[in-house]
Structure formats: structure tokens, C-alpha cells
Design a protein that fits this description.
The protein is of the alpha/beta class. The chain has helices at residues 45-63, 79-88, 92-109, 125-137, 167-173, 212-224, 238-253, 284-287, 293-301, 313-337, 348-364, 369-386, 392-409, 416-425, 443-461, 465-477, and strands at 10-13, 18-21, 29-34, 67-72, 141-143, 149-151, 188-193, 208-210, 228-234, 258-264, 267-269, 272-273, 309-311, 480-485, 488-493. It folds into three domains: 10-289, HUPs (Rossmann fold, 3-Layer(aba) Sandwich); 312-426, Four Helix Bundle (Hemerythrin (Met), subunit A), CATH 1.20.120.640; 443-493, no CATH class. It contains 16 helices and 15 strands.
Length: 495
């Protein structure tokens, strides 16, 4: 069951400051670039949120049949990497390799779709030098007396068009890297002259290394061409990084660099921005010790990607409960499948098609993942409510739809055994995922339990809730779970 119809993808474009229809230059082919990490430390939860958000967009495009060529870079030479190397007493290359490997592992655990190309800055020095040559030849850059090469922002008349501010405002509101060799305070380094003990490469201006911003432009244009469809990153990259990418790229080519700009809101901790000075950086590897990847993904997308999100263990626990409720519905439905009668899809086909349309329309409306998640829960509630009235084919269709749509978000991809294993690995309670088929009660014991359940139901009807709750808790201690549903109370034995 596929639904596309007249579906139009609409996405907020930071460049135009509005939600607009997403139309790739080459019909169904999308050229996408997302700023990867500067590998000078462990990836934190803010990085995870950004990568997951863009991952969902890529998954959605691919689901709709777009051919996506996706590039995500690694910045492996930078002032921060050099500073970390000095602190640790190792080389910058060792620092970069250590944290690049950690990033790869975290990406795999978070189930991020691998990019088609994941270039490193140090592997593209020739391309960077050629791009700087173009900027010098066109009068947008200059070589300072110390061998640094700077981009002259005053020459690029559209500087500030991404952030929506004038040059004077940007200079006043940002931490500009100071240097006595600059002509203007906002000029930024394209090439930094070699310093003792730092990695460096030969260039027409002397030995040195690339500046941060030029790396992304060179790598993006090498693999995606001079104009790309969509470029993404965290909100904190709008200025100066992405503003500078636009300036140097468009100054060099005379063409639009990226047609759509996708920016993800920041993650805060107790409403404060994560920062080393506050000591509130939360590493993804630490979160993964307690919560599995799908829970982290659910947490990240339960808030719209452009809004800030506050990180807390309570929020993650709530995300885990919500995700578990979807899994429990699927597992119960699969368990009941063998008992269900044969039959056609009938009217359920239209119901499922409507849910699918609502889900895809939610994602097509500026990637509204909170609404998409709400629709998944509506489907699960409908399935639970109707379960004992549905045929085999109807139940199977519900399960298939939940799995299919969940897969676009990168969730609901586990079977019962995998989910239990993920929970056990982190010391979580797995009783809710038990199957009554494996530990079926028979004979007198089953009759007695059903009698107790019926007595408790009568107590609840008479509003004697304290005694009813006591019965439920006593049975729980014996390993028997009662669940009150609209169809009555159901029970199961835990593993």
C-alpha cells in the first residue's frame, strides 16, 4: 500500500525565512550536505538531535522515491583539535582519529543512514587550495603579510543574507576571531600560516592549513557540484559558519551555493545551553548506556526539529514508555494473530490508507515529527481497541503499517527478542514484553486466576478501588500482570 497522490514536501528554508515547497533542481534527484563533527571530543546529545532530525528527512525522501546523494563531512584539522592534542600530549591526527571512530560508532548505534560520501578535510587539501586561488583571482580574498589568506567580507555584498542581519550587527553580536593581519574585523581565514608544531601543507602562499569554513565549501562542491539542493546543520552554525560558506562559495562560482538551508534547534540542559564552561555537556555514549537508540530517536523527534529541546532523564524515560507502548501493541497483535479468524481487509483498508495519508502529510509539512508520532499512537490505539474483532489479514495490515511508518522515523524496527535484549542490556524491566503463549496457564490454575480477575472487575465497578489495586499489586508480585482496557481486563504471565 503506497500513498503519494499530490503530496508536496514543504520545508522551512533559513535563507528565505519561510516554509516553501521543496523542489530539487534535477526532479527526483536530491543533492544533500550536512555539516559533520569537528572531531575534537565525544559527540554530545545536541549533535545526536541534529543528525537524527536530518536522518529522518533523508529517510522520508528515500521512502517517497527520491534518489538522494548525501554528503556529511568530518572536520579533522582545526584549532580545537590542535588545542586538544596539546592538552593530551598526542598529535592532532591521533585526536582526530580517536573521536572520528567514536563518531562512527555512535552513528551506527543511533541507526543513522550512512552518507554516500563522508569526506575528511585533510583528504581535500588540493581542492581547498584551488578554491582559495579562485577567490584570490576574483578579488574576494587577500594574502596577509604573515602568510594567512583572508576572505574580504566587504566585497561580498550579500553577506548576512542567511542570518538576516547586517554586517555591523553580525560583528557586534558574534565572537570574531581577532587578528592584526585582517583588513576588516569580520574577515575570516581561508588559510592559516604554519606555526611551530602544527600540521601544515604546502601552498602558493607558504606552508599552512585550511580555515574551518573553506573546508566544507570545497568538499560540498567536489561531490555535489557548485549548486546543491539542501544544506543542513545546527542552529549554531548559521553564523558564522554557514554565512561564510555562502559568501566564499558564491563569490568563487557566481552561482547559488545551496537552495535550501535546514537548521536544527539547540538542545539545552535545565534551560541552559550546553557548554564546557557550565560543565553540562552530555555525551551520547553515556546516554546509550541507559537508553537504547530508538528511545533517543523518539526523544529527539517528539519536538519539532526547529524548536529548542531540553534534555533530561525524565524526558528520556517518558520517551521510552511511549515507544514501549507502541511495541507492546505490535507484540500483542502478533501474539493474537494465530487466534484471529480468516477474512478480507474490508473497510479497514480505507482506515489504514487514511492514517498513512495523515502521517505522510505531517512529515511533508516541514517535517512535523510530533504529529507523525501522534498518528502512530492513534493507529496503535485503533488496533488495540479492535484487536479481537479483526481478521488475520486486518491485524497483519495494521502491524505492517506501524512498522513501515515507524521505519521512516527510524523506530519500531525490532522484534520481541531484540527489544527484550536491548532492555536487559540496560537493566530494564522486560516483564511487559512477556508472551502469554510461552507460559500458558491451564486447568484449575487458569480458572482460579480468571475468577480473581472477575472479582477484581466487580470491585472496580463498585468503585472499591483500594482493594482492586491491592489485588493487582499482589498478582504482580507473583509475576502476573493485569491490564485494564476498554474491552475488559487482560492478564499475562511475565518472563
Amino acid at each position: 500500500m503506497k500513498y503519494f497522490g499530490m503530496l508536496k514536501i514543504r520545508i522551512y528554508n533559513t535563507l528565505t525565512k519561510q516554509v516553501e515547497e521543496f523542489k530539487p533542481l534535477d526532479n527526483m534527484k536530491v543533492k544533500a550536505y550536512f555539516c559533520g563533527p569537528t572531531v575534537q571530543d565525544s559527540p554530545h546529545i545536541g549533535h545526536a538531535r541534529a543528525y537524527i532530525s536530518f536522518d529522518v528527512f533523508i529517510r522520508f525522501l528515500k521512502y517517497l522515491g527520491y534518489q538522494v546523494f548525501y554528503v556529511r563531512n568530518i572536520t579533522d584539522i582545526d584549532d580545537k583539535i590542535i588545542a586538544k592534542a596539546k592538552k593530551l600530549g598526542i598529535t592532532p591526527f591521533e585526536v582526530a582519529e580517536k573521536y572520528a571512530r567514536e563518531f562512527y560508532e555512535v552513528s551506527r548505534e543511533l541507526k543513522l543512514i550512512p552518507p554516500n560520501v563522508e569526506p575528511r578535510a585533510t583528504g581535500h587539501i588540493p581542492e581547498i587550495i584551488e578554491l582559495i586561488k579562485k577567490l584570490l583571482a576574483r578579488g574576494y580574498a587577500y594574502v596577509a603579510d604573515n602568510g594567512d589568506v583572508y576572505f574580504n567580507v566587504s566585497k561580498f555584498k550579500e553577506y548576512g543574507k542567511l542570518s538576516g542581519q547586517k554586517l555591523e550587527q553580525l560583528i557586534a553580536g558574534a565572537r570574531i576571531e581577532p587578528s592584526p593581519h585582517k583588513r576588516n574585523p569580520a574577515d575570516f581565514a581561508l588559510w592559516k600560516a604554519a606555526k611551530p608544531g602544527e600540521p601544515n601543507w604546502p601552498s602558493p602562499w607558504g606552508r599552512g592549513r585550511p580555515g574551518w569554513h573553506i573546508e566544507c565549501s570545497a568538499m560540498a562542491m567536489k561531490y555535489l557540484g557548485e549548486t546543491i539542493d539542501i544544506h543542513g546543520g545546527g542552529m549554531d552554525l548559521i553564523f558564522p559558519h554557514h554565512e561564510n560558506e555562502i559568501a566564499q562559495s558564491e563569490a568563487a562560482t557566481g552561482k547559488i551555493f545551496a537552495r535550501y538551508w535546514f537548521h536544527v534547534g539547540l538542545v539545552t540542559v535545565k534551560k541552559e545551553k550546553m557548554s564546557k564552561s557550565l560543565g553540562n555537556i552530555v555525551a551520547v555514549k553515556d546516554v546509550l548506556k541507559e537508553f537504547d537508540a530508538e528511545t533517543i530517536r523518539y526523544w529527539a523527534i517528539q519536538t519539532h526539529y526547529r524548536k529548542p529541546i531540553d534534555f533530561s532523564l525524565e524526558q528520556l524515560k517518558n520517551a521510552e514508555k511511549a515507544l514501549d507502548s507502541l511495541y507492546i501493541t505490535i507484540f500483542k497483535a502478533k501474539e493474537y494473530l494465530g487466534k484471529a479468524p480468516e477474512g478480507e481487509l474490508g473497510e479497514e483498508k480505507r482506515t489504514l490508507e487514511n492514517y498513512k495519508r495523515e502521517f505522510l502529510e505531517a512529515l511533508s509539512n516541514d517535517l512535523n515529527t510530533p504529529k507523525a508520532l501522534a498518528i502512530l499512537h492513534k493507529i496503535a490505539e485503533e488496533l488495540s481497541k479492535k484487536l479481537k474483532k479483526l481478521s488475520k489479514s486486518q491485524i497483519a495490515a495494521y502491524i505492517t503499517l506501524l512498522r513501515e511508518l515507524g521505519g521512516i522515523l527510524g523506530i519500531l524496527e525490532q522484534n520481541r527478542e531484540q527489544r527484550i535484549e536491548e532492555k536487559k542490556k540496560r537493566g530494564k524491566d522486560v516483564s511487559k514484553f512477556a508472551t502469554s503463549e510461552k507460559l500458558e496457564m491451564k486447568g484449575l490454575a487458569k480458572d482460579l486466576l480468571e475468577l480473581i480477575v472477575n472479582v477484581r472487575s466487580e470491585l472496580r465497578k463498585r468503585k472499591i478501588y483500594d482493594l482492586a489495586d491491592k489485588i493487582r499489586e499482589e498478582l504482580r508480585e507473583l509475576g502476573i500482570i493485569l491490564e485494564d482496557t476498554r474491552e475488559g481486563t487482560i492478564w499475562r504471565i511475565t518472563v
